[in-house]
Amino acid sequence: VVYQSMELRMELAMLGLTYRCESDDSSNNYNSLNAGDGYETISPGLNVEGLSQLPRMKRSLCFKLLESALDGVKADKLQLEQLIQQQSSTTKEDIGCVFPNTLLKEMSKFASLTSSCLHGETDPRCLLQLLRLLNKMQQILLPLFFSTPAINPRIQFPTVEVFDASVSLAIAAFTEQNATNLAPLFFSTPAIDPRIQFPTVEVFDAVAPYYPVHFTPPKNDPHGITREMLQDALIAVLCERGAMYSDNSIEDENSNGSENENATMAELSARMFLERLDPPKFTNDYDPPSSPESEEEDKADALRDLSILLLPSSSSSNTGAHITVAFVSELSSSLARAHEEAVSTDKTTDANSLASRVRKFASSFADNLAPVSVSNGDVKVRHTTLLWEAFVHDATRKLGSNLSSSPQSMHGRSSTAYLAALAAEGGLPTLRKVLDASLPRLLDLLSKHDDSSSADDEKMAAAIRGIAAFMSSCYVALKMWERDNRGVQRHTTLLWEAFVHDATRKLVSNLSSSPQSMHGRSSTAYLAALAAEGGLPTLRKVLDASLPRLLDLLSKHDDSSSADDEKMAAAIRGIAAFMSSCYVALKMWERNNRGVQVHPHPLSKYISQILQKIATALKGMRGKGNDGPLTLAAAGAFESALTAADLSGLEEGDMNVIEELLDLMSTVVLEKVDDAASRDDDTLRKWKKSCARALGAAIATGLHKSEDLPNSGERLESLAQSLLPKVLAGSVCSSKPHLERYDWMVLAGACANGSPNVSEQIVTSLLSSTIDDLQKKVDVRECSPKFQCFSLMALAYLVRCGGPNVGKVFHSLSAPATTPLDVINELCVPLDQESLQDENISDPPKQVTRQLPVGMSHLQLPDSLAKDEEMKNATIQRAYSVMPYLIEAYVCPSSTSSCDNLVAFVDQILPPLSEIDEVQLYVAFPLLAAVLNGQNDVWKVVSSATGERLQSMTTYLAQFTMSEDHDSFSRSAAASCLFAILIHGGEGGDSGGENIKNLLDIVVYPAVTESVACLQQTFDGASGVTTASDHACTANVEAALNFMALLGSAAACRGGRCSQTADEIASCLVQVACNGSSSAFAFKSPGNEAQQHPILDPASLAFVLPAAAFGSMLSVKNGGPFWRQRIIHKTLPILMKTLQEQATSRSPPALGSLAVVAHILCSVSQTHLGESKIRQMIPTLIAGLVYFSKNLDVIAQDDKGTKGLDVLSVILAALTKILRISPEDVTKFVGVIIPSLLLLSTCNASKRYTPNQLIALQCLEIVTTHPNARNAVLREKDQVTA
């Protein structure tokens, strides 16, 4: 209603004005407007040409009519804000709404009509009235075009479950086609049509001819209209005075680097003022000549108008809110030219000269645009910063060249004066920018003529005067900054002192009295947090107030036999907490100040005393660590001291203390402990962990090297260098699997706390040890299936726990150092058969190459082939035993740097031509899969050459995955690589989709057809006994269908045109699982007898294979949020039709459709399926549960029952999900579910049935809490207890 009121007010006002101007006799025709009709329409072309022919009085009435409409719109807007505020909890400042496009279009017409009334107006009274009307229109209408949308949280997009489930598929199909049109209506607020804009250009064109105002009022003017009044009204329109709005398109234009097609009033007006200040150089012969005095007055007036427009009148105003970077750059150039011309013509140098005014305006403008310390996410501040950079950078770039070339010339003197004024009053950022751009040029100019006899003295003098001017500007700028910020700083300092001093005064008393109490621990935590993130002054304040009290407390009990260990431990833990806070605070300071160090160190006056107290606490604990919390606290404090304090200035006595403590802790960590003695002593384990962390901190601090940080003294460095080899030697020694490796903890702490050079030393040493372990002579016949490489285990531990530097160093190593590729190559080297040669076996070792062996000399006897096979299997077995630890290094984010080398390595040996190639692929595929599928953004940084290599591998990877000649682990890794390539490879083009389609047609369909035909032959000749060939045929079909599902998942996740391929694969799998046939292949339908007992029929069990493949397709987590919904939309009709056909049969549910139902219920959300579809599928699920519970003994004892157990697992999983999410859907089946679950839970079957038994027990636990389960529970209670 409010919107209609606004529109009607403006429409009636425009109709009244239009009818008034339609004819010459309109002034006497008062009945030409039907006031009560309301059906009149405004023609697109509004004609007000007759307005100028009306008498002044009637023109004034027309203007009042328009003003009344504006007043009404303003009242309606206030009423609308009150209504919104009453209906929601938003404050008045947050109120905003997007007005309908029809209303905005009407406002635009109204504004255009109002501005057109100004054309040809000459009467000063009407002119003043109309200018004020235009400004009022800007204040009321202009903000409405930039309103903030108000979001109504009660209006949401209706999801599928809101509607009747019987039409959910139709809705899904509809939303799939219309999502683009519907989603914005609910997920975003209504958007203003960009074509509907406020007619700023038309308003400017209407008022621009009146600038500047030349008006001399007649003598004895009774109306009192002056030139100043008209000028003020005109400037109000040009500056949009009082119009509060934010045009975000200006910020967007500047951030995108493009020009704004829709110029704002501020920019249009500024350009007009600027043309008056810096007129074009060409002259018009028709323009009358002007005197220099009038030109200077015009320029001064233009500068004044620019100041009114661009300089804020209050601190709340936003300079540059409606101007662009391009204009500011133009403004900078024009001001520089105007200043130079003024300098050349000004005869005076006082503050009222034009040059002085230009400098004053430029410096004030730069000061208002200067960057401030706010969040980088503030769009307005970022926009203002861009304007400042454009203004100041353009001035320094263009004028700086004059300083270095000819500072004594008029151009040089003008540039010096302009830049010096800019530096003096443009704010601190402008000062730094100008000094950095100007002083080096002048100093270089002086340096070039230091020893030159032909130096131009005048030029040198001008350069020195310029330097003096900039130093004076620096002095003025700093004094102004101090004056403006003195009060704020003093007030802030008082507030800080009151806050921090009060906190430390009240809380530190708890530290010295009872640090172990709740009050003491709370005070320690609060003060430590205050010190860590409260800034350097707060850090020093807290440390000076807290550490002396804690140290005094420890001093009082040094020699006391009755000391409270818990109290002493709490005091030491408090000291450690404050040292850690110091470490955090200094790191934050360095990060925020570009690595600048704090001197003196806040802990410098306490560190010596702290070390002495730590040594006293650990006295007599050599290797024991059994005295409880005091020892553990002291070890932790020692770690904090090594990490947080500056140890470079310690005296010899303090270094002796550190050496003694390190010797104590290294003995504890590196000693060999008996297995039985270390299993139950929890205190001893904590003590060793504390010692390990302290040793790691010592190594990190002693070996730390950085360009901006000094090392921590030669003494500590020598200690760390002597300690590290001992720890490395112990880390590669064998140990029992369940024992904790404290030496690995030492290395992890050193890598986490140290600089990259520490990680480099450790990683290089471990890689070298790995190569040594792999090069040891091993007899093939005695090769253990559990080969242990402890150096590689240690490296994997460091990757997990040693910080990011370990992964970065590992993947950045290059020759001559040991590289990851060296480890891969060494893993692929065949195991040495020297022990076999010692038994007089004359076959010499063969040199394995990529060339195919050709010729009689390369023929191998069966015995030799068997040895090669034995060698290959042993090599692969050893590689697989260490592969989990090597994969750890390729999962980390830094593995992207090794991707190119790894892809090149695989590309050279694919397809495999020899057994050694197979070994290399078995090693490389798991590593490449870890890189391509890791959370490391490898696809964003991979090179184009590597991307092409990956695309060329797809066919070979598919063939490798489908081949029966390779083991399952390597085939799975190859499939993982292929999946990643198909999803991410070739992004931005159709190469990925073409690869999927080609693989489907060339590799998958032929393999599926062949394996299914082989399986059908085994069914036709089945004797009732399962043979190895039956298992092989079933495995081949399963592998082919799983690979088909992998391609479908990749196509679905990739989206776009690939979605059709995904639909084709999903539909094919569901059709075969439910009906036995599709357009690609078909299964043999089971007979009537087989349908009565499907779990004993191999042909019926075969239908589980495509259902399982479809389930694996739905289980993929990659891709967008909608592909799974699309797949369900395509396949659900096939399933529902099959279920309706099977509903009338008394036979058990077909295993294929039963498995599809279970997989869909497990993998698809309730929203995508719809409640009605779920209720239609639940009877089939329950029927399958009952059937399996009655025939479980057959499944558990028969080898054919493997697939049946798989189906049972999915059935139980789907039932668990339904019982958790929507238990009301199974209310009528509770009496059947509980007995079935009891049978499944009490079956005494083989170990492979145990997982199903656990899931059945979980379902039973859930279903017994169902409201309708009481009767069923009571009915079964006696049998259960029996």
The count of strands amounts to 0
Principal-axes geometry comes out as globular
Largest sheet: none
Note the beta-strand portion. Answer: under 5%
Number of helices, where a helix is a run of at least 4 consecutive DSSP H or I residues: 52
Our Rg estimate from Cα atoms comes to: 42 Å
Amino-to-carboxy terminus distance: 75 Å
Low-confidence runs of at least 5 consecutive residues: 24-46, 148-190, 254-261, 373-377, 622-626, 675-679, 706-711, 833-852
Average predicted confidence as pLDDT: 79
Question: What does this protein look like?
Answer:
There is one protein chain. With 1282 residues, the protein is mainly alpha-helical. The protein is 67% helix and 0% strand. It contains 52 helices and no strands.
Label this structure with key terms:
mainly alpha, 52 helices, 67% helix, globular
Which secondary structure elements does this structure contain, and how are they paired or packed?
Blueprint: H1 2-22, H2 56-87, H3 101-116, H4 124-141, H5 168-187, H6 200-207, H7 227-238, H8 248-256, H9 265-277, H10 292-310, H11 325-345, H12 354-369, H13 379-405, H14 410-425, H15 428-448, H16 457-513, H17 518-533, H18 536-556, H19 565-592, H20 607-618, H21 629-644, H22 652-670, H23 682-702, H24 714-731, H25 742-753, H26 756-774, H27 790-801, H28 804-812, H29 820-828, H30 834-837, H31 862-891, H32 899-909, H33 915-932, H34 938-941, H35 944-952, H36 954-962, H37 968-984, H38 991-1020, H39 1028-1054, H40 1058-1075, H41 1088-1092, H42 1098-1102, H43 1104-1114, H44 1123-1142, H45 1151-1163, H46 1166-1169, H47 1171-1190, H48 1192-1197, H49 1201-1221, H50 1230-1241, H51 1250-1263, H52 1270-1281
Helix pairs in contact: 1-2, 1-3, 2-4, 3-4, 3-6, 4-7, 8-13, 9-10, 9-11, 10-12, 11-12, 11-13, 11-14, 12-14, 13-14, 13-15, 14-15, 14-16, 15-16, 16-17, 16-18, 17-18, 17-19, 18-19, 19-21, 20-21, 20-22, 21-23, 22-23, 22-24, 23-24, 23-25, 24-25, 25-26, 25-27, 26-27, 26-28, 26-29, 27-31, 29-33, ...
